[in-house]
Amino acid sequence: MGSAVERFGRGLLRGLHRALPRASGGVTVLAYHLAGAGTGSVVDLPAELFARQLDELAESGRVVPLAHALERLAGNGGEERHRIVLTFDDAFGNFFESVWPLLIERRLPAVLYVPVAFVDGGSPSPLAGAERLKPMTWDQIREVAASGSIAIGSHSLSHPDLRRLPEAECRRELELSRRRLEEETGAEVASFCYPRALWSPTAHRLAAELYDSAVAAGGRRNRPGRFDRHRISRLPLRRDMPPSLERVLAKSVWLEEWAASGLRRLRP
Question: What are the domain boundaries of the chain?
Answer without folding.
Answer: 23-266
